[in-house]
Amino acid sequence: MRILATLLLLLIFLDVVGWQGAGPPDSQAPSGCQAVYAATSRGGASQPASGASCSLLPPANTVLVQRVVDGDTIVLAGGERVRYIGMDTPEVTGSPQFFGPEATEANRRFVEGQQVRLGLDVSERDRYGRLLRYVYVDGVMVNAELVREGFARSAAFPPDTRYAKCFSALEDEAKEAGRGMWGR
């Protein structure tokens, strides 16, 4: 575990100082996105729920996901709602939108019943009182992975735009590959 932590800190350091690794997957990543890419299965995770961590490691404490509301919102044990930062999924309430049920199910596969780590950008809460966070399971940033797999669109809502360029590039990749909603 200490070796993995040391490697992750090295990756963070190299990302912060602007190191540009050669070859896939980082060669097409916008500047500063290498760690975000590493936190997806594109970056070497063998499965969506395992892999490297992102450039801003959230606190080591974890919290249990009680249930999934939709593709971009979860409820934690204790009832706190969390809205994922940097992406948006089709709605499932009222009149379900195209690919909404699929996005919700993908999010459920990632996080429901799992211990997650939460990372903050700038804002604590949205106008609805939900926590705004990057959500990690086993080192994978779920926000980025949902975009990469085509279950979510990149969506920048200032001031929480730390990874906006990265998420946009992941969306472009999903479109080009015809993954998820982009394949229909």
Structure explained in plain terms:
With 184 residues, this protein is an alpha+beta fold. It has one domain (2-183): OB fold (Dihydrolipoamide Acetyltransferase, E2P), CATH 2.40.50. It contains five helices and eight strands; from the N terminus they run ααββββαβββαβα. The chain has a five-stranded mixed barrel with strand order 1-2-3-6-5. Strands 4-8 form a two-stranded antiparallel ribbon. A hairpin with a 2-residue loop joins β6 (131-137) and β7. Residues 4-26 and 45-57 have low confidence and may be disordered.
C-alpha Rg (nearest Å): 15 Å
Under CATH at level 1, the class stands as Mainly Beta
Major sheet = 5 strands, mixed, barrel
* Low-confidence segments: 4-26, 45-57
Strand content: 15-25%
Average pLDDT number = 78
Element-level helix/strand string: HHEEEEHEEEHEH
Give the arrangement of secondary structure elements:
Elements: H1 2-16, H2 34-38, E1 63-70, E2 73-76, E3 81-84, E4 87-88, H3 100-111, E5 115-119, E6 131-137, E7 140-141, H4 142-148, E8 153-154, H5 164-177
Helix pairs in contact: 4-5
Features:
OB fold (Dihydrolipoamide Acetyltransferase, E2P), alpha+beta, 184 residues
Quick take:
This protein is an alpha+beta fold.
